[in-house]
Amino acid sequence: MASRRTRAKRSERRFTIEGVRRAQPDIRKLSKALLAVVLAEQQREAEAAEERNTG
User: Fold this and answer.
1) What is the tens place of the pLDDT at every residue in 12-49?
2) Alpha carbons within 13 A on the beta-carbon side of 44
3) What is the secondary structure of 9-27 as a DSSP string?
């Protein structure tokens, strides 16, 4: 049988993140995303309330 090599321990990797400034945020895209989140939350709440009332 061939012996398996053990991997050498790697040093910790360090990640850096740099922000990028843009001229203007896309307000229409942000408002559509926010509206979708609110509608999904309301739908979940309505389904949970219906389940409580029928169950």
Assistant:
1) 888 888 888 878 888 999 999 999 999 999 999 999 99
2) 6
3) PPPPP---------S---H
H or E stretch covering 5:
none
The Cα 53–Cα 55 span in angstroms is: 6
Residue type, 3: S
Q: What is the dihedral of CA 31, 19, 17, 38, to 10 degrees?
A: -10
pTM of the shown model: 0.53
Residue with tokens 């009332």: 53
Res 6: pLDDT = 64
Token pair 């740099």 in the structure block, residue:
18
